[in-house]
Every structure is written in structure tokens, then in C-alpha cells.
Write a structure and sequence with these properties.
By secondary structure, this protein is of the alpha+beta class. The chain has helices spanning 38-42, 49-58, 61-64, 77-81, 87-91, 97-105, 115-124, and strands at 4-9, 12-17, 25-27, 30-32, 70-75, 108-110, 128-132, 138-143, 149-152, 158-168, 171-176.
């Protein structure tokens, strides 16, 4: 049964539903709505315009609008800016679509992995956890302090999760500061 609690605070009515995971999170200057899918939220983030353009170039829009659930480790524009000059321009060319698709799907893990799920998997794995990506690769997770998780790719690159638990209707986004690279 879905419980609904309504509270009036300073004249504003706030409804809390037990099926909603968390309050909407601000990403890229916009509120990410838990009722929208991954793509519909990402297009509103000023920090993810490069990622959105890459998803469109790879033809992954319909996939990421699918039922899921998906966990997307979403690199920011600044993360893409860390790549060697010309890398993004090369990846979004039509002839690079297979490579771009592999890189992007490497950032997607089937299932819903928020902070609690990731930290639980790390604890269960004695300090580390490996998750299979949609591209068939592996991402390696470790705690870095009490409230931070790092993600290491197959090439040894390390990303920090800067924003956790951006819930979507078809999964969750965790914002990262570095583009992850598959083998």
C-alpha cells in the first residue's frame, strides 16, 4: 500500500510518498525529477551537454529511455574536457560510432546502484566491489573516506562520484568527474 503523508509548512503543502526514493536533486543548475527518465533529465543539465550529444551520436537515446533499471555513471562536461584534445570530436564522428557506443555503455550498469547499494556491495566484498557494465566490461568500486566512493576503470583511471542518488523513473544517475575507459 502506498502511504501518502501531507504536511503544511508555512502555507505550502508538501506530499511525501513512500514510493518516491528521495527529493529531487539539482544537477547542472536544474532539478532532476524522479518521475522523468534518464535522458529527459540529462538534457536539462548544463553540466552534461557533452554526454547528451554523445548519447545522441551513438544512437543510445531510446535505450536509455527504456524500462531499465539502469545506473549511469554520468561524466560532466569538465570530465570530457580532461580527455586529450580532439578525443570527443573524433568519438562523435559517424565512423567512430562503435567505439563511442562502447565507451558510453561502459558507464551504464544494469540495475539500480545508489550510494547505499554501492557501499553495501563494497562492504560485502571486503572493501571493494566489481560491477559488470552494459558493454561487458567491469568497473571497480572502493570507499574513499566515509562518504565517498571511487570508480576505477579497466585502464586504471579513477573517477570520484561527485553527486549520488539522482533517481530517475528508470534508474539512477551518479555524477562522476572523469570519463571511464574500457579495455
Amino acid at each position: 500500500m502506498n502511504k501518502l503523508v501531507t504536511t503544511v509548512i508555512a502555507g505550502a503543502c508538501i506530499a511525501l510518498s513512500s514510493t518516491v526514493f528521495a527529493a529531487n536533486v539539482m544537477v547542472g543548475g536544474q532539478s532532476m525529477m524522479a518521475s522523468k527518465d534518464i535522458v529527459d533529465n540529462a538534457v536539462n543539465s548544463a553540466d552534461h551537454t557533452t554526454l547528451v550529444a554523445a548519447v545522441k551520436a551513438a544512437g543510445l537515446v531510446d535505450t536509455l529511455k527504456g524500462k531499465g533499471p539502469f545506473t549511469v555513471f554520468a561524466p560532466t562536461n569538465a570530465a570530457f574536457g580532461k580527455l586529450p584534445a580532439g578525443t570527443v570530436d573524433t568519438l562523435v564522428k559517424p565512423e567512430s560510432k562503435p567505439t563511442l557506443t562502447k565507451v558510453l555503455t561502459y558507464h551504464v550498469v544494469p540495475g539500480r546502484y545508489d550510494f547505499m547499494a554501492l557501499s553495501g556491495a563494497i562492504k560485502k566484498g571486503n572493501g571493494k566491489a566489481d560491477l559488470a557494465t552494459a558493454s561487458g566490461g567491469k568497473l571497480h568500486f572502493m570507499m574513499n573516506g566515509v562518504h565517498n566512493i571511487t570508480v576505477t576503470d579497466e585502464m586504471g583511471g579513477v573517477a570520484n562520484i561527485s553527486t549520488y542518488d539522482v533517481y530517475q523513473s528508470n534508474g539512477v544517475i551518479n555524477v562522476i568527474d572523469t570519463v571511464l575507459m574500457p579495455k
